[in-house]
Fold these 2 entries.
Entry 1:
Amino acid sequence: MKKLNITKEDVKTFFRNNGNTIAKKTGLTVLVLVIITAICLSIYCVSAYANLRISVNLSEEEQTVQGFGASMAWTFQRIGANATEEVKEQITEMLYGESGLKLNIVRFNIGGGSADSNLDNVVPYSNPSFDPDRRAESFFMAENFLDADDATVKAAFADESNYDFETRDAGALEMLDRALATGGIDKVVFFANSPHYLMTVSGTCTGAEVQQNNLKEDFYETYCDYLLVIVENLVERHLSGLEKMPEIVISPVNEPQWDWGGEGSSQEGCHFDPEPLAAFYDVFLKKLSDYNDANGTDIKCDVLESGNYKFYIDRKDIKEYLEAMSKYDYFDEIDYISAHSYGADDSKKHREKYQNYIDKNYEGLGISITEYCEMAGGRSNTIESGLLLANVISRDLTMLNAIDWNWWLAVSPCDYNDGLVYWDEGAENEISVLKRYYVMGQFSRYLDNGDIRVNATCSDLTGWAGLDYSVFKKADGRTVLIVINNSKSDKTVTVGGLDEFSTAVSVCTTAAEQTGWEEKQGEWTGKVSLPAQSITTYVLGK
């Protein structure tokens, strides 16, 4: 390479001849940057600090909301079996009672049998990565058919005499009974993370390999029989005597696109590629329809339970599953699919992208959010953690028109952000909650099955003011306004479109220094005062 011989005198000469031009260009660039910065700051100030207004249109109705719930998976077996009577009553009231969250949806886990003793030394249950607290009992008495051929096993699954509904999963069933006894449950979802292990390719409730289609193809109908036998018996034994029969839903598949196999598997789970899953639903929905016709029932199916509604580039995502299912006749009869908000968290971008795709390709297809938790270690008792949950719920309701919303574990014993209530099993059987518990109640305590969300817009078009909001009409004529202030400064917002209501208003706020749901009665002036980093619910009556 030729060496360049540039002297100090050459540099001086260059700048002497070109200095004015460089200075002018540099000055112009700086001026442009200053102008752009000033414009951005002006827009931000207008958005964040100018008079804010939320405009409500009560006549423009969106979705009808069915309510809020959480899962009874795993922990409830131990609570029912080991907790004191006082703790059981306390947990039930905190989740489903009038003084608690008033959850009206129960998600009951149908275990795949990973807790069977004959699997104790079998991979993956013998691996350190598999969490023993997340193994699940099955009602099917598999110990009688471990050496049977496939034909015998298939026949056995269809025969209810091969199931034990008295002692299996008894702790969880006791807690289900306690929830139902509150009289506030409108929907019970029976969901399975995996088929029973005798139906799987791997012989366990997780795949032997990453992304292994683990349900044997010739066991599709058997799996349907298995679920219908279980649900029929649980309904007859635990729900049939209720004064108000809840809606019954079966969810046979959970997060089908995840790996659910290979090294690192830690819980029950079953992967399905799009085409096998679509084919399975064709079998299941026909079986369910025939069952309903024969028994005069109206059991529904949660279809898909996608691990999230984000779109990926490097793996199968929800688009591929929808495309595969849309090739079948049953797809036209589906009113909604179920999905989880993992990964999307409070992102507006992911919700807009998903909803635009649905509007373009599957217009009118609704969504039920059946699972979410904050995927982080520890127990975050902060307002920031609470506001994350508030924004996830609010944006799922307003941007996706979700018909219901469900948290993951109703009760967790773990040092992880997956619980609404925390149970520290031990001598003292301590119960505790975090900020998110009170945030969840800002929605679940005030919104009921049948409430209708109505259209509302905000003058803050950029979103820089940090407001999220939703408005709902109730059957009794009241209206509920829920406003989230994500900013670190107090806000005053004018609300238009609610002039027809009386001056009486009930106000409940959750903020950094506030716990519980203390309701304050006040006078409706058309303005709302929002503390920094808070969520506030207003109930207006006529």
Entry 2:
Amino acid sequence: MKRMLPAAVATLALWGCGDSNHAIVNDSREVMDASQQSVIASRAMGLVASSDASEKFVTRTVFVDDTGAEHVRFDRTLGGLRVLGGDVVVHNRGAGLASDVTWASDVSLKGLSTKPVLDAAAATTYAEKAFVGKRSGPSSAELMVDARPDLKPAVSYEVVLEGVRPDGTPSELHVLVDARTGELRGSWEGVETTAAVGTGKSINSGTVSIGTNTISGGYEMRDVTRGNGFYTMNYATGLVFTDADNVWGNGATSDAASSGVDAHYGQQVTYDYYKNVHNRNGIDNAGNTGYSRVHYGTKYNNAFWQDSCFCMTYGDGDGTTFRPLTALDVAGHEMSHGVTSRTAGLVYSGESGGLNEATSDIFGSMVEFYANNANDPGDYLIGEVIYTPTKAGDALRYMYKPNTDGSSANCWSSTVGSLDVHYSSGVANHFFYLLAEGSAGNPVSPTCNGLAVAGIGRDAAAKIWYRALTVYMTSSTNYKAARTATLNAAKDLYGNPSTQYTAVGAAWTAVSVN
């Protein structure tokens, strides 16, 4: 959702002069404190503040892009409670230029009571009904306001339940419980996977160079040259890999370090891709890239990103369908979940969850192309090298024709949001392939409207998607809003009219997002 603001008003909403309690941001401008932002931003943005003046907007981040435009993310609160679906991005184009706002949800919260009927313990009991698997570890319950689009706002608890899913994947299930009625309002996973159900992955990157660290008596698998550094550990031992001569693994599963090499290599290539292509310093843009863990579980057919540990974890596969899941595109996929978490924060359910997964598939593929590794050349298949020889030719997902896997959606429909997020991602994956390669690419990609689409190249397509993610998308962006976000990104980068802007619109129309 977007609203236009006069340039002068937008500037007032974000910056002031001569006031105390200012914070200094990365471009040396001063940002108003929360109380000032609350009054000015709520009026300038056209929101109706609550009658007790308890509704506020607090700056989360200020991002200055390469055009000099400033994009400020605000978090919305009501009575001191976090508002899910309340985040907004104000885009300040500069003196004399109109500014606009991207909303997660602009629903009015006027008159909404923030007083719960249930306590946290009761909410947790309701939430546990949604957990599938074995519960273990602690739980937490935060009182907040659920104001996501298409729902009636309600004071709710966000309950986080830890445990293990039936297939062995760790679970951090987030469940929203109405704090007055106990109704379950939705849920999503905090552990985001590649969804290789019943299968696994392995890396086949050949002999590569990896960053290591000298220690007493040898070396450890720790890169200290990229950002704030990262390391790779053996989950089975809980220790960082070490070696006496700085020659790691033997290219086979008989040496535990071989999978470690693949994970470590995938992490450094992913860091390099984001740094060199998008000028992003690590997953969080502050130099942090997390760490990797290999040899998780027994014959475990999956890999996952976990935001709470800021880390990637890889299984070894069952040896029948999958080998170790440490493929280049899988590494890029998992770490891109972290990028999404630190930017748009796309909620991992419904259409926003499909866009979350598609973002990881898109950048996982771009990492694979960037690596230019002859042993695992770039393509628009996800996880194709993790299959055993008996399954050669299979892939987890096919971006040029998503329904090849039998479950993913080629085209948008009103029911897409009800699919598993790994399958609803097909719409955005298909869009990206058409935008980058066109319908006559190799392989050919059929469109949903039967019309031909010309590609603009994967570099331009990736830059448009990255800008849309980091500047325009919010936690509850759906496919219609993603179309708007990418059109805005294309306009910023290439202008309107431009070949790239026109191609974005055509590619979305080709997957039935109008």
